[in-house]
Amino acid sequence: MSAVSEPPVTVPAPPAVRTGPQTFLARARRSPTLVVGLAMTLLLLLSAVFAPWLAPFDPSAQNLTGGLLPPSAEHLLGTDQLGRDVLSRILFAGRTDLRIAFLAAIVPFVVGVLLGLVSGYFGGTLDYLIGRLVDTVIAFPFYVIVISIVFAVGTGEGGIYVAFALVGWVGYTRVVRATTKALRGSGWVAAARGGGLSHGRVILRHLLPNILPQAVVLLMTEIILIMVAVVTLGYLGLGVQAPTPDWGTMIHDGQAFITTKWWLSALPGLAVIYTGISLSLVGDGLGDAWRVR
Amino acid sequence: MSSLEVRNATIAYGRSVAVTDISVTVPAGTSLGIVGESGSGKTTIAAALVGMVPLITGDILLDGAVLGATRTKAQRRAIQLVQQDPYSSLNPRMTVRQMLRELLLAHAIVPRSQVAARCAQLMAMVSLDPGSLDAFPHQFSGGQRQRIAIARALAVEPSVLVADEPTSALDVSVQATVIELLARLKQELSLTLVFISHDLAVVNAVCDTVAVVKSGALVEVAPREQFFRAPQSPYSRALLEAVPRLPTR
Questions:
Q1: Is residue A5 part of a domain?
Q2: Taking CB atoms and an 8 Å limit, are A193 and B156 in contact across chains?
Q3: What positions does the domain ABC transporter occupy (chain B) (predicted)?
């Protein structure tokens, strides 16, 4: 033993909790993608919600003597072949298409996420059965199956909801199932089960919040996909029926005058692109803000 | 305080047998160290003790009662695991308070009005600042995370704590504090402790009995003093001789 007494060893205090943008809101504010996306989406939603007040004319009011007018002070985006104000119709069409896209996305989202969670968590026979069901639905080209269902159920809004409820869930199920399978072996899932928590609680309170960011980003993509599909169905005459304005029907109706009155098709097309970009930015931004670093 | 017994247990992953016919008893309030090289089956034994892996043959008994293949909520609560890797054992999307609160309420450990106080008490018990209860796991260091994992295990007031190499993912300086914490908690809470490690010095510091595992089989079970003084099996001797020692000046 040393004759000289050594000074006591002092263990440095552990560092305080790390700081930085730790909450969702803090990270969200720092994401320019999300901020721009939300601003664009807000503008879009406001224009849809307040369309009855913003639109200068009744979107269905015809004026057969004033058809195919170019943009002017009275009709900012001109008129269509029936003399209806194009700006008013674009605003009201946005109301219709966005409502359908958002509503039609809800059922597939809920069903797809739940099936993916259950399939990935429990595995076994249930996983096999759900997997084969997903494979079966995916085997059909998307538009072929959607158009077939709309034909079978009937055109219009109801047919669109049924078609997407039957088809739209597979994307979520595939992604959520794969993520859940990867997370199922995590120590924290084992700890939750070991702590005496039920399977239901582990799935909903532990796994769901961890897969939700991916699912919500996918939801944004799916809303865009549904909106484009609604527009496509409208273009084919299988979607929203006249006289309700819809971007797809407007693109179709303007097609006959594409060489002389190009804006009749181009402007509703631009509205579709604007909506797609807005929701994509929101999806990407949400992904960034939700990611725990 | 509960006794734990493993009786003729064989554990397999599919067709691959990981542990063969092991039997060991841990009297109530004592600690068993399970040592062996990597791949010897230590973690498999830990997983089986907490019910994560089923036994092919044999039984696990808690206070003399056989724990079945499907354990009840109370049985799962009774034996808690502290995992090897503190970086993957905590839910990244839950604050410490949410983790502890959920367990306290799920088992009705304390009345709802006392949950906050109990959470703070659990943090203090593992020498963490109760002020950081609302932080997420990624805001803590590895050692702090392991303390949180210990607090979470203690939240359900288990009678047996299984610690599976709880220090192997930590820095040496932090290892000592976690070991000291486990030893203190064992004393204060009268826990029965199963401590799995390949670090013989750590086992010497914490355990009353040492079990040596090799290739999925038990080669020796002995009281700590006897094991470190006069190991019986050649493998145990080899393990002890393999411990690196600092050169003396």
A1: no
A2: no
A3: 4-240
Amino acid at B55: L
Is A11 domain-assigned?
no
Number of domains in chain A: 1
User: Which of A11, A193, A210 lies nearest to residue B177, judging by beta carbons?
Assistant: A11
User: Can you tell me the ipTM of this complex?
Assistant: 0.88
Tell if the CB–CB gap between A210 and B51 is shorter than 8 Å: no
Q: Does some domain include residue A271?
A: yes
| A186/A155 Cα distance (integer angstroms) | 47
What are φ and ψ of residue A12, in 5° steps? -60, 145
- How large is the average pLDDT for residues A16-22? 62
What is the H or E stretch that residue B170 is in?
none
Least confident range from A203-217, B101-115, B174-188: namely: B174-188
DSSP state of A203: I
The two tokens of residue A10 are 């002092």
CA distance A192 to A188: 6
> Residue ranges per domain, chain B?
4-88+160-242
Q: How far is the C-alpha of A202 from the C-alpha of A205, rounded, in Å?
A: 6
pLDDT for position A30: 87
Phi, psi of B246 (to 5 degrees): -70, 140
From chain A, the residues in CB contact with B73 under 8 A are: 196
In angstroms, the first-to-last Cα distance of chain B is 45
The CATH class given to the B4-88+160-242 domain equals alpha beta
Q: pLDDT digits over B42-51, tens only?
A: 999 999 999 9
Measured distance CA(A44)–CA(B198) in Å, rounded: 62
Closest approach of B232 to chain A, Cα-based (Å): 32
- What residues in A contact B141, CB-CB < 8 Å? 14-15
* DSSP type of residue B58: E
| Amino acid symbol at B143 | G
Please tell me the pTM assigned to this model. 0.84
Closest Cα in chain A, distance from residue B192 (Å): 17
Q: Which residue of B has its CA nearest to A19?
A: B139
Query: Side chain identity at A171, as an amino acid letter?
Result: G
Name the β-bridge partners of B57.
B10
Separation in Å, CA A152 to CA A97, A109, A139, A141, A163: 21, 23, 19, 17, 10
For position A103, which CATH number holds? 1.10.3720.10
Q: Is A186 on the interface with B (CB under 8 A)?
A: yes
**Beta-sheet pairing, B192-197 with B160-164:** parallel
A236 or A10: which leads in pLDDT: A236
Is A164 part of a structural domain of the chain?
Answer: yes
**Chain A contact present for B73, CB below 8 A:** yes
Which pLDDT tens digit goes with each residue over B72-121? 988 999 999 999 898 899 999 999 999 999 999 999 999 999 999 999 99
Contact B141 A14 (CB under 8 A): yes
Question: Measured in Å, how far apart are chain A's first and last C-alpha atoms?
Answer: 49
What average pLDDT does this structure show over B196-223?
92
B35 φψ region: left (φ > 0), alpha (ψ -120 to 50), beta (else)? beta
